[in-house]
Amino acid sequence: MASGTNEERRAELVRTERRRRRIYAAGAFASSTGFAAVACAGVLALADEEVGAAPPLWLLGAVGVLIGAAGLVAAWRSRPGEAAAELEAGLTRRDRVQRSRNATFLTFAASALAMAAVAANSGLHVQAGEGEGFDHLWVAGVPLLFVVFPLAVAGRGWWGRADVRKWLEDEFTPLLRGRAFQVGYFGLLAGALALYFVGLYRPEWVGVVGPALLAPGAVLPAVWFAVLDRRADPDE
Amino acid sequence: MSDARLGNRLKEARAEQGLTQAELALKVKVSRKTINTVENGVFTPSTTLALTLARALDRRVEDLFYLLD
């Protein structure tokens, strides 16, 4: 049976690919951690030449180089190969476009949280009456998160080409969307509640912690949508 | 998302037709993921999709989906 053989082959590829991804992720993590340790050791050594000559910093640097190099080698050896290419070829265009949307959601969510952190810092300057042009710009940018993310998850604000957009809506997209908004709603409620108490007891903090408390609620639907979509198909 | 009372023979019917998940997905205009989740009972399809699947596999809906009790 041709289809049975295809299924067995696919199952084998999925197993191989999962193993490869695990090794790749571990390698990437090890190399990032190792080289971050080297950077820390370098910065500390530059900050104080005497401390820099002390064994612990050299040791940290040396261990960092070893771990970083080992991680890099592991990640390089487990880079996407034939199994990944074969699995990729078995996907429909709809699958690829939807996967790309999920990656965009996660990347934008991370950027939005970084933006909220910068906005919180700018809020501190604005509240102290020391705000400059960019501080006002960052603070004014926070409300954008509450427009962009809900629209993107609702499928109304997607800025891709029209012929690509038609691949984004799938049979269970509305179901995922409903669940994502449900989780986002509770996230936003939690943030708003926390902000209410901050306003009661530390009103001077509201402008500063506001973006940090509310932004997660704004981006949560997008993150949860991507998580649910990925979780729906453990083969991917 | 799923209904514990619903069983399906989608995988068997698809295999009999010699189709992969991706090929069936293209026929019924959904993603491969949707086909996979229906086959694994993770997702209960709408009436429209159930009828479309039945038509694509040249089966009756009752042959593809059944109540477990």
Question: Could you explain the architecture of this structure?
Answer:
The complex is a heterodimer of chains A (236) and B (69). By secondary structure, chain A is mostly helical. Chain A has 9 helices and no strands. Chain A has helices at 2-47, 49-53, 55-77, 82-89, 93-127, 133-153, 162-165, 173-201, 206-232. In chain A, helix 1 (2-47) crosses helix 4 (82-89). Chain A is flat, with a radius of gyration of 23 Å. Chain B is mostly helical. Chain B has 5 helices and 2 strands. Chain B has helices spanning 10-16, 21-28, 32-39, 47-56, 61-64; strands at 6-8, 65-67. In chain B, helix 2 (21-28) crosses helix 3 (32-39). Chain B is globular, with a radius of gyration of 11 Å. Classes of the chains: A mainly alpha (236), B mainly alpha (69).
Q: Kindly report the oligomeric state of this protein.
A: heterodimer
The radius of gyration over CA of chain B amounts to 11 Å
Largest interface, with counts of residues having CB < 8 Å to the other chain, equals: A-B, 22 and 24 residues
Shape of chain B: globular
Number of helices of chain A: 9
In the sheet with the most strands of chain B, the strands line up as: 1-2
Question: Main sheet of chain B, how many strands, which sense, barrel?
Answer: 2 strands, antiparallel
Order of helices and strands of chain A: HHHHHHHHH
Mean pLDDT of chain A: 85
| Strands of chain A, count | 0
Q: Could you tell me the mean pLDDT of chain B? A: 90
**What level of helicity do the residues of chain B show?**
40-55%
- Main sheet summary of chain A: none
Measured distance between first and last alpha carbons of chain A: 24 Å
Shape of chain A: flat
- How far the N terminus sits from the C terminus of chain B, by CA atoms, comes to 19 Å
N-to-C order of helices and strands of chain B: EHHHHHE
**Poorly predicted spans of chain B:** none
Q: How many extended strands of chain B?
A: 2
